Amino acid sequence: MKKLLVLFNVFLLGSSILFAQVLSSTGVKNTLSTSFGLPYANTDVSDRDVRFFGLLETLQIRYDVGKFTAEGMLNWGALANWSAEDGGDAFTFAHTGITPFYYTNNHTAGGGWWTKPTIDGYYVNFIFHPTKNIDLGMGTRLNWVIGPAPSSLDDYWGYKAHLVQGGLKDAAPGNADVAGYTYYANCYTSYYQTNTKAALAARFRYEDFIEAGIAIPSGVTTSTPLFNAAVSIHPVDFIRIGVAFEGVMRNNGNFYTGVSFNFKNFLLDTYLAVNFRNRNTLILGAHDGWGNQWGTGAAATFTIPKISMTIRPEVGFSFYNESNYSMAWYTGARMDFAIGSDFVLGAWSSLAFGAYDKRWYDEDSGVYHSDYTGGRIFDLRPEFTWNINKSNALTLYLDYQSRLKFTKEKYNTWASGLYWTYKR
To answer: How many other β-carbons are positioned within 10 Å of the β-carbon of residue 57?
Structure first.
């Protein structure tokens, strides 16, 4: 039974990730983690040493009573400044958005929300259910998702968190170490063109057949009004279709559509995102490298009950509307294998190739660099979980990452640690 429950949970996470970063039902989840590793640096640097990153605790609570739902999260850390060579003399106790995953994937050159999360280390949501089919919500992370898209699977504080789109960065070639990330607007409560989800929103749901929603994201002003809208239909058992537009009333919003085909022991997710030019977006400091591109991809989830295994390969492609920029792409896979009734071996691995500027190879272009490439990223993250009982689990993980920057500089990092997860 435990093996089947594990596989079922993985299957849900791999499909539409409806509740990533929030709890799916009334309860409590507490995650205590610690990690250590080798920080990012050029592989030619010889004076790096292993660092201990401290302790992090994430408490999530959801409570449903009558027509109301309240949910919240708080992430606290005892962050260390300790290295094997130099030692250390202090902990910093702080409310923080930093996670164990952050340490492995923190890279100062052209980072983004998946490496340095702009999300806060807390969320508070309130949802009112006036009737069976209507939800009215406001909060800092409503996370109302309308369909499948590339994801980091588990929430940022969980052991299954992994690189989104292989670690490609949201930038034009030359503005990040490995550029080519495409934004998917399937979470229609999102702040325009970022990953935060503070919003005032409403949705209508009729059984499992249709869902339609609108949201006013945080940051909207009367001089730049906009709202997000989405609809999802489930016309037959094995097909679910989602469509969303982020930035209605603007001429530079983001379009999303995704389709899931659900068969016995097999799920196929396909998705398309179109990001329009957004130099006049709500984001301060936005530049030409943000938006103005489109991406497509797919992921397949296979469950093999006889050997208690789930496998989810995926692939994605990103295209810029600027003709001088090449395509970027990534591929990756997630595997979970139950050993007996109490143990699970899991792993994620991905490989991404960034976009390049074709003018780099034109001697008359003014930006000639014959030795530049689009760069690439390889990531491998195995973990081993012991399900002690229905409420407690321990997970040991290792994350290794190697990068070739577009300038041909080589970087690598690794981190390891332990998670204790309590759910009730």
So the answer is: 16
Tell me the per-residue pLDDT of 299-329, one tens digit each, with 9 for 90 and over.
999 999 989 999 999 999 999 988 999 999 9
Burial class (CB in 10 A: 0-12, 13-18, 19+), 249: exposed
236 Cβ contact partners less than 8 Å away, ≥ 6 residues apart: none
* One-character DSSP codes across 235-275: EETTEEEEEEEEEETSSS-EEEEEEEEEETTEEEEEEEEEE
Euclidean distance between CA atoms 155 and 233, whole angstroms: 26
- Beta pairing, strands 309-320 & 266-275: unpaired
Residue 382 identity (one-letter amino acid): P
Angstrom distances, CA of residue 217 to CA of 2, 130, 193, 371: 40, 22, 10, 43
Q: How far is CA 101 from the centre of its chain?
A: 11
Could you tell me whether strands 210-217 and 239-248 are parallel, antiparallel, or unpaired per DSSP bridges? unpaired
123 in Cβ contact with 97 (< 8 Å): no
b/e per residue 217-230 (b: at least 16 CB within 10 A): bbbbeeeeebbbbb
Contact 85, 49 (CB under 8 A): yes
Kindly state the tokens that stand for 382. 């195995």
Its pTM stands at 0.88
* pLDDT band at residue 127 using 50, 70 and 90 as cut-offs: very high
Q: Residue 171 is encoded by which pair of tokens? A: 């930038």
Residue 319 near residue 292, CB atoms below 8 Å: no
